[in-house]
Sequence to fold (806 residues):
Amino acid sequence: MFKLFPVTNGLENVKGFFCGATNVGMRTNPVNSGGGDVDGDVAFIRSESPCDISAVFTSNTFQAAPIKHFLKYPKEFQTDFVLINAKNANAMTGEKGIEDIDTIMSTLRTKIDVLNPVMSSTGVIGYRLPVDKITSAFDTLNFHASDSHKAARAIMTTDSFKKELAYKVELENSKSFNIAAICKGAGMINPAMATMLCFIITDANIPKSDMDELLVQSTEDSFNRISVDGDTSTNDTVMLLANKESGAYHKEAFKAALNKIMFELAMMILKDGEGANKLVAFEVRGAKSEEEAKKASMALSNSLLVKTALFGEDPNWGRIASTIGASGIACDEKKLTIHYDDLLIYSDTFRELDKEREDKAYKIMKQESFKVTCDIGLGAGSYTSYGCDLSYEYVKINAEYRT
Amino acid sequence: MFKLFPVTNGLENVKGFFCGATNVGMRTNPVNSGGGDVDGDVAFIRSESPCDISAVFTSNTFQAAPIKHFLKYPKEFQTDFVLINAKNANAMTGEKGIEDIDTIMSTLRTKIDVLNPVMSSTGVIGYRLPVDKITSAFDTLNFHASDSHKAARAIMTTDSFKKELAYKVELENSKSFNIAAICKGAGMINPAMATMLCFIITDANIPKSDMDELLVQSTEDSFNRISVDGDTSTNDTVMLLANKESGAYHKEAFKAALNKIMFELAMMILKDGEGANKLVAFEVRGAKSEEEAKKASMALSNSLLVKTALFGEDPNWGRIASTIGASGIACDEKKLTIHYDDLLIYSDTFRELDKEREDKAYKIMKQESFKVTCDIGLGAGSYTSYGCDLSYEYVKINAEYRT
Fold:
């Protein structure tokens, strides 16, 4: 058995890591730079001792330069330094984009000893990194800082709040380890198209093979439930660094902690949806297979007509039904039922909403979060994905982004 | 050889057809009832003599009751009467929905002789048709009217203008035939999710087998280029009725006329995009196959980030590139080129926009319509789809629809 509890602040809870950020002047328009919470534009995470590192990257064919740079290291490399910048994705920049990272890291080495440093970027596609600006960060950064808040704020783009979490895990043998993360990303209509970056660090004594296995699993159960498979930005990255310094490890405990931290971060991304006000879980059950349930659930959380109905707080189950019918899964209007939370709003024998039930549905939709459950009635496949509403604000943010 | 020329007005140009509409009071909120151009809510199209009929219906599993009613007729049935209503889709209404149509048609038969009458509906999903209101139309409708404008206006929902077109086709032998259509639908983020209805009539002496073949082909080259395959509303319908009364026919001439009329209607739908201001052609060429070109082209015309960038008139080719990379087709950033109209905005050796070129791109994007061409540089596959921008107005219309 083990105990898992949240601790305040973020990355500084994990033994042997340092982190911080600075401002090198890459942000020109505060409106599109994370609002009031943003602070700085270049961040770092550093470990005293070498870390094993696992990563999950975007499935976009046009992977950004920092990802290509990462993948040039040998498969089982260790690192002790991650550099992160906002405002420029260093994507679609060709060989030059990779050379720019090498140049930055050469300059870094004149300031501090680093082992196989990696980089991660988010921002606009298609522009070379301002190398001189970024290397100027090394003059002001305190490489012995423990300023997780500042690092979390520096990596924001359209985020309206910083995202950081930390958990302590106590094992039966009275040993304990820590896990913490910072993350950026704002859920949107197709959340996958906005860059999502997540950096998780731990002092657990976790074997590399477990890191690889559990990171993929947890990504599937968190960030991939708020996005469409295979339709991701050029830069999406989830990294897990482990320096093993606590000496403690328990696979089930670590798995639980990693799942929890990644799911909570995914919900924070959705909650911070660009202009979004509501968080809705779309549970599809009774489908012929899990694959079919996933297909329908993802179709719902990505449907613009469903999203605008959520924004308008319109209990229009027709759009839910139509989206399921269009998703291509086996379904039958006589077997289907639809609930908003516990309220039945559609079944074969119950189609038109009376006034009383419509009022109840309306109240449910007024909540900040609720659940739509669609029972297909044909099998045992189930899947839940998570979506947000679509508001005027979304259009505004994305029409004006980049400037 | 043949000559094809547009004629004024609409359905009344075709020999032996009547059409008209009336208002039975189904529209309660003029804001969501097609704006100023709307007139009436029940329309009909009628032929003096029996017509062959071909139809293409939605691929949504939950086909609406009028489609199920249609499909209950024998495969090669003839008809002389189409009844169309707005404001209520008669979808997800079960067996009762089909019975309601039978009831309506029984009442119709007490007023006028009809052969295998069919129905088509658009509007909100999940409510029984107001049968009494609809049959009250038969007291006021003039079944010998030729009021195409009124019919085109009565079938509008979120459309802001009526859609009707007519062409006369003159053949070498000095014979001629006519083809005309009315249509409703407003292009949107995923245009396929809003009901699209199109009724095409002709007096050409076309064989039924040609009708079936050409209607499918032309649908693929028109309405399906502004939507995603397989992701359609419960009611989408394209019908072609031929009463053969002109005695004239030429397959190539008919094909050209049908293609032209359907493509122009598709562009009218897009132009009438809910809140949309721009019409953009997304040509993908040089893909490994036509299938891959279509996949990437459709991904572009459906991408929200591309659509909001269009609305913001931001020459952000990064979103175009990222969408292609995410579409899952074979591509290579060294081979890719992107043009806005004739302006090169991305190639391997030309990535960052200078001020002059950005200004040119900005001017192109200011136009009401322009073309984005992405050459993948890997093969001979090409495909063009058509999209519109995403504006605040879209969210407003779709948040408020139904009320």
Notes: Chain A has two domains: 2-271, 279-400.
